[in-house]
Amino acid sequence: MKKIMIKENERGLLFKKCKFERILEPGEYFFWSNNADIKKVPLKEPLNCLSPDVDINVLLKNKNIAEQTDVCEVKDGQIGFHFVDGVFRNAILPNSNKYLYWNVEHENKFIVMDTSNPETAEDLPKYMFKANKIPCSYYREIIVQENEKAAVFYNGKFEKLLDPGTYYFWVCGGISVTYRIFDMRLLNISINGQEVLTRDKVTIRINLTVNYKIKDCIKMYNETENCSEQIHILAQLALRDFVGRYNLDEILMSKNEMSEFVLKRLKENQDKLYIEIMEAGVKDIILPGEIRDIMNTVLVAEKRAQANVITRREEVASTRSLLNTAKLMEENKTLYKLKELEYIERICENIESINIGGGDILTQLTKLIAKD
Fold first, then answer.
1. Distance (Å, rounded) from C-alpha 152 to C-alpha 169?
2. Tens of pLDDT, residue by residue, the chain (372 residues)
3. What pTM value is reported for the model?
4. Which burial class, exposed, middle or buried, applies to 238 when counting CB atoms under 10 A from its CB (0-12, 13-18, 19+)?
5. 370 burial class (0-12, 13-18, 19+ CB within 10 angstroms)?
């Protein structure tokens, strides 16, 4: 004889010789140990937690079990959602057996959805996916940021274009769901260190930048392999076409013309790439080391020559000014004396006295001027 206690928050299932007999309500029971097998089931757990050898359909034939449980059946290509007293409890995955949940203490509600269509229902609360109660392998989350669009593909075929937001798609119904994010803002491509040969056989390197926007992301994705690479190639060809026509000196003086030429060439091909070229410009023209040293030498020589010319011009102007001053003083004695006084004033400002042989030269000069 063995004693069995069934608590308030559980039920017992009595099996004799592997055959279900009845349900045991809360209380105290005594059974012969070699004649009874009792399985305790918590009320918060479904009856499916029992051994898979237990047939749910057999249990449902019992009136008490049928009254105290709710049935949910989820087949392949479906997924179920279990709500307890209006609160989402867990996801119910496909199973060959039916799901039995106790309704003694709580009210159960089930929602069964078809996953053969990857798109989730609009009225399905999104918080259910964030609760970590749905296996991640059953759905795919797509987050589209502001200024972005997302192209969704079913089994590799374009299905729809998504605006900014958060979306969920079923991937457990046999349909593969993939996606690609497109940035709809102003995009930039930098082409750095592009080596180009000028007409006079000088190799220069050019840094170029291109700004563009995507006009039709679906056609661009379907009809161009790599849009940024295509822009890169078109810009390279335009640079080579322009630089190959001119000598080095002409290239250095036509940086703006080069940018306009590249921009025009890119705009001619923008419709083929389903983009809009906004701007293209040459940032830098980098010369080889030897050429750069030669040009620096030439520049230094030119600046020195310009400095010499300016120096000579100033010397001539200064001499001419002195000559004019001398003519005026020769013609006007008073002006000559005023000039003498000016120089004496300058000497006196810097020297207090000058003595030679016991005499003060400054005093003597003053007397002479006064006498005159």
1. 10
2. 778 888 888 888 888 877 888 888 888 888 776 677 888 888 888 877 665 667 778 888 888 888 888 988 888 888 889 999 988 888 888 877 788 888 888 899 998 888 888 998 888 888 888 777 888 888 999 999 999 999 999 998 999 999 999 999 999 888 899 999 999 999 999 988 888 888 888 888 889 999 999 999 999 988 888 888 999 999 999 999 999 888 888 888 888 899 999 999 999 999 999 999 999 988 888 887 666 666 667 667 777 778 788 888 887 888 888 777 777 777 777 776 777 677 677 777 666 666 555 556 666 666 656 555
3. 0.67
4. buried
5. exposed
DSSP per residue over 214-253, as a string? ES-HHHHHHH-S-HHHHHHHHHHHHHHHHHTTS-HHHHHT
Report which residue type is found at 31: F
Q: Domains in the chain, ordered, with CATH?
A: 187-287 (3.30.479.30), 333-372 (no CATH)
* CA 113 – CA 82 distance, rounded (Å): 12
